[in-house]
Design brief:
Low-confidence stretches: none
CATH topology of the largest domain: Rossmann fold
Number of strands: 10
CATH superfamily of the largest domain: NAD(P)-binding Rossmann-like Domain
CATH architecture of the largest domain: 3-Layer(aba) Sandwich
Number of helices: 15
Strand order of the largest sheet: 7-6-5-8-9-10
Strand content: 5-15%
Radius of gyration: 22 Å
Structural class: alpha/beta
Distance between the termini: 43 Å
Length: 377
Amino acid sequence: MNRKAIRLHRKLRGKIEIMPKIKLTKSNLPLVYTPGVADVSRAIGKNMDRVFDYTTKWNNVAIVTDGSAVLGLGNLGAEAALPVMEGKAMLFRELAGINAFPICLNTHDTGEIINAVKMISPSFGGINLEDIAAPKCFDIEQELRNTGIPIMHDDQHGTSIVTLAALINSLSLVNKDIADSRISILGAGAAGIGVAHLLLKAGARHVVVSDTHGIIYRGRKENMNPYKREISRLTNKDRVKGDFKKSLEGSDVFIGVSGVRNIFKEKDINIMSERPIVFALSNPEPEITTALAKKAGAYIVGTGRSDLPNQINNALAFPGVFRGALDSRAKRITDEMKLAAAHAIAHSVRPETKKILPGVLDKGYVKKVAAAVARSA
């Protein structure tokens, strides 16, 4: 148990709060509240777009979860998800100046989650879906695409953006091209499917995805869902079958988003290509530790942890992506915006083997990401 984290949370009793933008006085009370605010409401009633000019909607994001996939810990429930969502709200505010509100829903029903997001959307300029288990997370996001505000499931798209950024810089260090690189992804939930799709959009041609039942290939019958079937048609062109370790043979890159600690062994690196790249991204415990991977010969190692070199975490993506989407009044977040964000993150640092990405608290990159996303939008 991390006793320091427990003590800090007990001391703070919550990590965020709401503050007024001006001091409340006797003279401005009739303006910010009744009777003056009635005219503001009438103006918005006549033209709904004025809500962006007269309220905080333009800068508000809801972080919505049902607590069914909290970090790598599984279904802990809505209350247990709240400290994670508060942490994300801090990052939104500190890094991008965005007001973010944790919305932890006491339901696991797909339809109820969709309806809840639709009902709260008038208050928000964007929705960040978070820690919702696959495959329902895919259904929820698809149903909400036409809500009229940008909606992004962070475990899919935030993770895929940052993983692509890390891969761009890592491949440059080993002098390899993404189109020719063989990439093995372990994990076919939200993150694994999201990463695979964005890597394909970025030009990857040799991607194999595995789940806990083995390599996913076209025609596999066991433990499939519509999203695994879709990815089976787009990846694994050679229809390799077997345990995920079969996909490591000659691979240039391993990306772990399995949620299974220590599943990737030192000996597995020996069957990869020269100067292998290992991204063990499961949190809080990676598929292999940085020390073991380096000892076994990995050329570049990244994890999702902030206490190790080369943190590959969606915290590098979502503040800038939503800042750019909000500033441009985007109605949705597109693949082009995600690709633009990945390249902006990658180009924010001169890569080295122990620093392939900027640090989460290096604020300069957030502005670059926001600008790139806004231009794309």
